[in-house]
Amino acid sequence: MAIDVILGLQWGDEGKGKIVDYLASQYDVVARFQGGPNAGHTLKFDGQKFVLHTIPSGIFRKNLINLIGNGVVIDPITLEKELKKLDEVGTDYKDRLFIANKAHLILPTHRYIDAASEAAKGVEKIGSTLKGIGPTYMDKTGRNGLRVGDVFSPNFREKYELLRAKHLGLLKLYPEFDFNLEKEEAVWFESIEVLKKLINVDGEYFINDQLKQGKKVLAEGAQGSMLDIDFGTYPFVTSSNTVTSGVCNGLGVSPHQIGEVIGITKAYCTRVGGGPFPTELLNATGERLREAGGEFGATTGRPRRCGWLDIPQLRYTIMLNGVTKLVITKIDVLDEFEEIGVSLAYRYNGTLTDRMPFDICDGVIEPVYEMHAGWNTVLSGKTDFDGLPEAASNYVKFLEEKLETPISIISVGPEREQLILRDIIEVV
Ligand code: GDP
Ligand code: IMO
Ligand code: MG
C-alpha cells in the first residue's frame, strides 16, 4: 500500500489544512512528517473554524488515526492547548492520536534562543514565527536534543537540566534579552504530563505496520517547498525538509512507498516573513489581494505579503516534489480582479531565465508577466468545472499547460465542501 503526500508548493499557507481535512475521509491514517507549531492549518466545517499547529488535519474525521511523526518538533504547551480545543468541542482523540517517540521536543529555552537570535539579526531577520523551530532542529542535528520517548526515562529531568544549562550559556550572548524561565518551565513540565498520557509509538514501525495491513496513509506537509531548508530561499527558510523526500525521513518510510504527490498552490502567491518573493506586489493590487484573501497569518496574525502566481517558481517545486496532481486554492479571491497576472520568466542580472537563481537573495529579480482577463463572477458556490465562466476555466487550463500537471481540485472557498473536483483523487 502506498502513502500519498499533500504539501504546499509556495511559501506556506496554501490551504493544506482545508484540503487534508477534505481528503482525509478517504484515508485511514493522516501523518505529519516535519515542522511544528510554526504551522497554522485552518479547517472550516459545520460553521466552526479550527487552526491546528501540531495535530494532523485528519483529527476531525471520526475513527481516523493521526500520527505526529518523528520529523516533527513538538512544543508540549502548544500541543496541550490544541488538545483542550478538541476537548471543548467533544472531539475524542485519545485512542487515535499517536506520537512518535523520536519526535524532538521544543523547550522554553529553544523559544528564547529563537527570539533572541532573531532580534539580534535586526533588518536581516528571517521573520521566524519564534516558536523555537530553528534552535530545536539545531539541537537535533547537533545531537543534543530531547525526544518524546525521553520523557519516560528516569533521567529525564537530568537530561533536561543539561540542555537547559547549555541554552542558558548561549543566551548569555544576548544580555539584553529578558525572560522568565522558572514560570514558563513550570507550565512546560505540566504539559509534559499531558504528553505522557498520549499514545507513544515507534513511529517508523507503526506506519509500516499500517501500510502492511493495507491501510491508506496520507502524509500532511507543513510550510511550503520554498521554505525547504535545502531548496528554499536560503537563509529565509524554515529548518526542515518540507519537500516529498522529507516524508521518508520524517515518518520512516521508504521512497518506494510514496504514491500520489498532491501539490497545493494558491491561485496567486503569498509569503509571510522576510526573504525574496519575485512576484510580490508592493502596491494597491497587493493590498487588494491581502484584503480579498484575508491574508493574515494563522499562527502569528502577521499580514502576509501578496503577489501574482509565479510559473518558474511552481515548476521548480513541482520538479523537486515529483508532483502528480495539483490542487489550486483561493481562486475565488480573484473574482473581482479585472486582470490577473502570471509570471512566466524572470529578468535576473541582465538575462532572461525560467529557473530559480542560486543567489536569489542578493540580486534584483524582475518577473516577466502575462496578463489574463478576470471573470468578474462569484465562484464560491460553483461545484462543477463546466459551470465556470470561460475566463476562469481558461486560467485553470493555462496553468495546467504551463505546469504540465493536471489540476484535480479547485478550491472556491474556505469551507470543507467548497470544491470543484475535476478528476477524483482515487486512493488505492
Ligand atoms: P495552510 O497553512 O496551508 O493550511 O493554510 P492556512 O490555513 O494558513 O491559510 C489558508 C487560509 O485560506 C485559511 O484562512 C483558509 O480558511 C483559507 N482558504 C483555504 N482555501 C480557500 C479557498 O479556496 N478560498 C478562500 N477564500 N479561502 C480559503
Ligand atoms: P504553514 O504550515 C507560512 C515562515 C516564517 C519565516 C520562516 C521561518 O501554516 O504553511 P520558522 O518559525 O520556521 O523559523 O520561520 O518560515 N513559516 C511559515 N510561513 N506558513 C507556515 O506554515 C510557516 N512556517 C514557517 O514566517 O519566514
Ligand atoms: Mg498556515
Descriptors:
428 residues, alpha/beta, 10-stranded mixed sheet, 4-stranded mixed sheet, 11 helices, 30% helix, binds guanosine-5'-diphosphate, binds 6-O-phosphoryl inosine monophosphate, binds magnesium ion
Could you write a compact summary of the structure shown?
The protein is of the alpha/beta class. The protein is 30% helix and 22% strand. It has eleven helices and 20 strands.
How many H/I helices?
A: 11
| Order of strands, widest sheet | 9-7-5-2-10-1-11-15-19-20
Given the C-alpha coordinates, what overall shape results?
A: globular
SS-derived structural category: alpha/beta
Tell me roughly what share of residues is in helical segments: 25-40%
Residue windows where pLDDT falls under 50 for at least 5 positions = none
- Please state the CA-atom Rg, rounded to the nearest Å: 21 Å
Total beta strand runs: 20
Summarize the structure in words.
- Strand 16 (339-348) and strand 17 (351-353) form a beta hairpin.
- This protein is α/β, with parallel strands linked by helices.
- 30% of the residues lie in helices and 22% in strands.
- The longest helix is centred in the middle third of the chain and has 17 residues, at 181-197.
- It has helices spanning 16-23, 76-88, 108-121, 133-141, 156-171, 181-197, 203-212, 245-252, 284-293, 311-321, 390-403; strands spanning 3-8, 29-32, 41-45, 48-52, 65-68, 73-74, 97-100, 104-105, 199-201, 217-224, 258-266, 269-271, 305-307, 309-310, 325-329, 339-348, 351-353, 365-373, 407-411, 419-421.
- The strands form five sheets. A ten-stranded mixed β-sheet has the order 9-7-5-2-10-1-11-15-19-20, with helices on both faces.
- It contains eleven helices and 20 strands.
- 6-O-phosphoryl inosine monophosphate (IMO) is lined by residues 8, 11-13, 38-41, 126-129, 131, 133-134, 222-224, 227, 238, 272-273, 298.
